[in-house]
Amino acid sequence: MIRKDGIPVSGGIAICEAFVLEMEGFRVTKRVIGDEEVATEIGRFHAAQGAARREYESNRDNLSRELGAEFGNIFQAYMMLADDPRLNRDVERFITENRYNAEYAVSLSINEYVKTLHRLNSNYIAARVDDFREIEKRLLRHLLGGTRERLANLTKPVIVVAPDLTPSETANLKREFVFGFATEHGGKSGHTAILASGLEIPAVVGVGSFLQDVVGGDIVIIDGDVGTVIIRPDEETLEAYRRKSELYSSVHSQLQSYLVDKEAITTDGYQIQLNANIELPDEVEICKKRGADGIGLFRTEFLYMTTGLENFPSEEIHFNEYKRVLECMSPKPVTIRTFDFGSDKAYGQSTDERNPALGLRSIRLAFKLMDVFRAQLRAALRASIYGKLRIMFPMITSIFELRQVKMVLYDIMEELKYEGQKIADGIEIGMMIEVPSTCVLIDQFAKEVDFFSIGTNDLVQYTLAVDRDNREVTHLFRSEDPAVLRLLQRVITVADQYGRPISLCGQMSSDPVYTMLLIGLGLREFSCMPSSLLKIKRVCRGVSTKQCVDLLNEVMKLDHSNDILIKLKKTYTDTFLLDRV
Ligand code: PEP
Ligand code: MG
């Protein structure tokens, strides 16, 4: 049994067989195949060879065009090596005679050539070794890359373990088969983590190097509440986690049946609006089930990730998805945030940006991809008649930028009216507060928008200069940092002075440890992960605003985030013992 600790990002216990997703580094596992698999493995090898050949061919043609035939011929040589009859013969022999899987057969064959070359001991030969390694890598990438494709075709429950999962891979996970996942990389506010929680898949990220300890088919336990991953558990541990999992489901169903229809009202009568965040339209059902008061954040960029990144989804696709969500939630509000690509949410075109979080992301990209942006806005406005739509812009940094984006929106409204299309009256327009500059100028922004939503995931990242998705600095990502709390205090107070509704939709709103503090700061609207709605409601209903303000006053005297967190956790556990559900 091996136990590893990582960052808990999506609660719950999962116990299942591991599905190991490889990436670079290509850890090749030796597998002895059955007679019936021989033809398949040979087929996989030839398919990988074909794919490698095609890639080399196109590299050759491109390079010949750009730099001349002598450069292109480098790839001609690779093409020939990849197709070498001896390589064919050796790999096929290892598969048919030794019954090895294709990856292992390729690695073994190339290792033998490399060993022979080394024995010859010459500089010329050393360069050939690199050539063989290149072929090996290319073939393995095609063979093991298939593992990633197989992820989309799972037919039985698994726990996915991987170096990393991209947000789009996570968005495409089949919930019925992926019971949980654990990754070596990642941080607690990255989008992979957010998606896991939205999809209610128990998940632990940032575990560090552990893939060498797990083989596909091993039993793995994921404890998404504390961040533990257990590989090949012993009987006693397995039994303990089975019991914990049952307890988890029973607390969950108690909360569901007791709280779902109740309002989030503090004991002194203040109404709290509890909205939900969604990434994918399908999640809207779960939000309704959990009694959400509306959708406070629809991260629409995930629509682009599921429909394929090369072709942006058409206006019609957007329209149908928005209509579905609006109709489902009507008459409750749905806040569509325009696409927020870039940084960790790739949008198809790879960029060489050194600091993608500070680069061409979000609203900046919208100005660059104007046609794509206009199509999205047209779709949202057309869908507005099917419910209560609010439109929100992400990552605004300056008044000028906000005015520019509003001009685009008004222009599209005119365009649609001119075409005779119907648009709802009084659509509210809002912006995210996620860059410190907007906190500084909050009074000016308040004159220009109908509502605000605080994105603490980015606000913390930009205020404390801590990458939200990097496990090396995850300990520095502190939503309770005194500097962050002062910014929150300022924006909530000023928004209130201007009569502008303000919500908080970053991950901080989904953690019940922060709920009292946020109410104390004056927040009356939360937008959280659907899986957290009931836990947050439980806190709202169990406290008075006075208790929350008292806590805030104590916390504001502390100057170290560790002390603040200890205080918040203690207050939460003292006030909300599990048995008081
Ligand atoms: C945030 O930054 O807090 C936020 C809600 O937006 P996202 O997580 O999608 O960047
Ligand atoms: Mg953000």
Describe the structure.
The protein is an alpha/beta fold. The longest helix is centred in the first third of the chain and has 30 residues. The two termini are 35 Å apart. It folds into three domains: 124 residues, 3-Layer(bba) Sandwich (Glucose Oxidase, domain 1); 112 residues, Enzyme I, Chain A, domain 2 (Orthogonal Bundle); 320 residues, Phosphoenolpyruvate-binding domains (TIM Barrel). It contains 22 helices and 16 strands. The chain has an eight-stranded mixed β-sheet. The protein binds phosphoenolpyruvate and magnesium ion (MG). Magnesium ion binds next to helix 17. The site of magnesium ion has 5 residues, from helix 17.
Strand content: 5-15%
Contiguous low-pLDDT stretches (5 residues minimum) are none
**Separation of termini?**
35 Å
CA radius of gyration is 27 Å
How many β-strands, per DSSP?
16
Structural class: alpha/beta
Total DSSP helices? 22
The best one-word shape is globular
CATH architecture of the largest domain: Alpha-Beta Barrel
Largest sheet: 8 strands, mixed
CATH H-tier superfamily of the largest domain: Phosphoenolpyruvate-binding domains
Going across the major beta sheet, what is the strand order? 1-8-7-3-4-5-6-2
Bound molecules: phosphoenolpyruvate, magnesium ion
Total individual domains: 3
Helix content: 40-55%
For the record, the CATH class of the largest domain is Alpha Beta
Integer average pLDDT: 89
